[in-house]
Amino acid sequence: MPQKTKSPLSSQNVFTSSLFGFRTAWRSSAALTTCSLGLLVVVSLLPGLQVVLIARLVDSVSTGDSGALTTGMIGVALCVAATEPLAQAVRALGYQIVSRARADLHGDLAHAVAAMPPSMLRRPETVDRVQSVKDAISMQTGYLYLNVLLALQGIIGAIGVCLAVFTFNVLSGLLVLLAALPVYLASSYLNRVQDRMDAPLAALSRRAGYLETLITHQRSATELNSLGTGQRVAAWTAAQYHTVADFESRLLRPLLKAQILAGVVTGALIAAALLVLVTEQATAGAAAGVVAAVAGAGAIRSAGFSLGSLAEASPRVGRHLQLLEDAPEPAPQSEAPAVHKIEAVDLRFSYDEVSPPALDGVSLSARRGEMVALVGPNGAGKTTAVNCLIGALDPSSGGVFINGQNAAQLEEAERLAVFGALSQEFGRFELRVRDAVGLGQPARALSDDDLADALTKAQAADVVAAMKSGLDTQLGDQWEGGVGISGGQWQRMALARIYARNAPVWILDEPTSAIDAEAEYEVFARLHRTRADRITIVVSHRAWTLQAMDRIYVLDNGSIVESGTFDELVAAGGRFTALFRSQMATSTSD
Ligand SMILES: Nc1ncnc2c1ncn2[C@@H]1O[C@H](COP(=O)(O)OP(=O)(O)OP(=O)(O)O)[C@@H](O)[C@H]1O
């Protein structure tokens, strides 16, 4: 992944976030965006036009020109009548555009995350950043164009009013123009405050969101309510959201102060402009000045509010752009090479500086056709070793060699294509059966025959045969028409994905932990029967599954303490025997 030296965050401001809002709107619909801008210009010029017409109207009253009076009255009436409906039309178009733009932004985020390598996804800061960008799409970045429209309406309206006032009195026009400055300064100040608080706020919100997910998602909520502790998690959720609210209110205080101050200064400048007009101008100018002051204040307030929202969103725009930039380009699918040997040499890895190393010089190897096992007590380092093999973790020293080549030198996609890895926490993808299994194969869509073959090999064909819609059955009973399946059946679906993938190196971390004894026997028997064309590495806690392994590596405290075949290890009477003594005693007594 490319390392970035300069964060675009530092350069985000109202202008760049407006540009981002405009670009997303244009991408979602160029026609609607053009339409909204056209209407916007018309509606924004109405206040200025109103000022000019009122000045003429007052003039015609004093000169007694009845024709001009009638025209002026009709003009003012039309302006007043048209303003609100046109403004509403701009807003309605704006909403339509932002809902499309949000869909695009959610899509962009999903694609960016999909392009991230597992090693990047494992980092907590990546998860925080993704969550923050996702939240912002629903709250700020997704609505930017609406604020751009409102800000433009306010700014064009204020400029129109200023120009109208300039025609009566230059000083007064300048004062109206100056009235926009406090609002802009307040926006910039808020932008800086927001930027400082955004990262800690995202972390707090993610925790609140996580707790809420626990108590609102079907599976976890059912488990918690069965335990009778759902209310406790609900209370934690509420408390965490209150923590978020307290944190946010620290932002609201400076926001309020800055906006009140800006409002007071704006009001004073508008009042001064009005005073100049009333004291220096004839009746028409003064009357127009009153209208201008009201219209100008309204336009500037609206522009200020929208500019404030744009300023508030700008750090989020920065994070959004940075995340998309940091995500690598989606790599073209790589054909898996034939692998005749995989080796791990002296792997060392620590999760942090204080804990003892999770891997302390682990070396192992496997050749095509071999089936090897990693065993050891909980916390020995088996999953860490597996993650280093597939590249989800980078060892601090040592390396993984595929066909003798250092795997760190391979392209990410090339390396991932080598492995079919089934983790302990395999995914329960609540999709149609064909999609849930088909996700194993990125290179092509699988035919029904391919899917049936993978399901059969994973002992899952009977499960699907019993479903009314077969391969088209929706998995998961939280969905309308969806089917709930057992834990072991979910694991068989996950194993079917690995058969569908058919990679040259299979890494199966306790692949049968939830599967019944009969099916487990079948699964292992088939793995042995079909092992010739691949390398199979299995993590297992069950003694009998280890008997036919070509080699067993015994891990303890991050080091390999023994290796050999089952019989050799039993004969040695060492750590392996101690680890599996109770299981071997049971099988002997059976
Ligand atoms: N994400 C993590 N952050 C910090 N420490 C971790 C993390 N994951 C694992 N560890 C620690 O690293 C060591 C090795 O863990 P690992 O998950 O590799 O063990 P394992 O042999 O797979 O255990 P099990 O049989 O329970 O699956 C343990 O001490 C564990 O507490």
TrEMBL record:
<keyword id="KW-0547">Nucleotide-binding</keyword>
<keyword id="KW-0067">ATP-binding</keyword>
<dbReference type="InterPro" id="IPR017871">
    <property type="entry name" value="ABC_transporter-like_CS"/>
</dbReference>
<dbReference type="InterPro" id="IPR036640">
    <property type="entry name" value="ABC1_TM_sf"/>
</dbReference>
<dbReference type="InterPro" id="IPR003439">
    <property type="entry name" value="ABC_transporter-like_ATP-bd"/>
</dbReference>
<dbReference type="InterPro" id="IPR039421">
    <property type="entry name" value="Type_1_exporter"/>
</dbReference>
<feature type="transmembrane region" description="Helical">
    <location>
        <begin position="172"/>
        <end position="190"/>
    </location>
</feature>
<feature type="domain" description="ABC transmembrane type-1">
    <location>
        <begin position="36"/>
        <end position="312"/>
    </location>
</feature>
<dbReference type="Pfam" id="PF00005">
    <property type="entry name" value="ABC_tran"/>
</dbReference>
<dbReference type="GO" id="GO:0005886">
    <property type="term" value="C:plasma membrane"/>
</dbReference>
<dbReference type="InterPro" id="IPR027417">
    <property type="entry name" value="P-loop_NTPase"/>
</dbReference>
<keyword id="KW-0472">Membrane</keyword>
<protein>
    <submittedName>
        <fullName>ATP-binding cassette subfamily B protein</fullName>
    </submittedName>
</protein>
<dbReference type="GO" id="GO:0005524">
    <property type="term" value="F:ATP binding"/>
</dbReference>
<feature type="transmembrane region" description="Helical">
    <location>
        <begin position="144"/>
        <end position="166"/>
    </location>
</feature>
<dbReference type="GO" id="GO:0015421">
    <property type="term" value="F:ABC-type oligopeptide transporter activity"/>
</dbReference>
<dbReference type="InterPro" id="IPR011527">
    <property type="entry name" value="ABC1_TM_dom"/>
</dbReference>
<dbReference type="InterPro" id="IPR003593">
    <property type="entry name" value="AAA+_ATPase"/>
</dbReference>
<feature type="domain" description="ABC transporter">
    <location>
        <begin position="342"/>
        <end position="582"/>
    </location>
</feature>
<keyword id="KW-1133">Transmembrane helix</keyword>
<keyword id="KW-0812">Transmembrane</keyword>
<dbReference type="GO" id="GO:0016887">
    <property type="term" value="F:ATP hydrolysis activity"/>
</dbReference>
<feature type="transmembrane region" description="Helical">
    <location>
        <begin position="260"/>
        <end position="278"/>
    </location>
</feature>
<feature type="transmembrane region" description="Helical">
    <location>
        <begin position="67"/>
        <end position="87"/>
    </location>
</feature>
<feature type="transmembrane region" description="Helical">
    <location>
        <begin position="30"/>
        <end position="55"/>
    </location>
</feature>
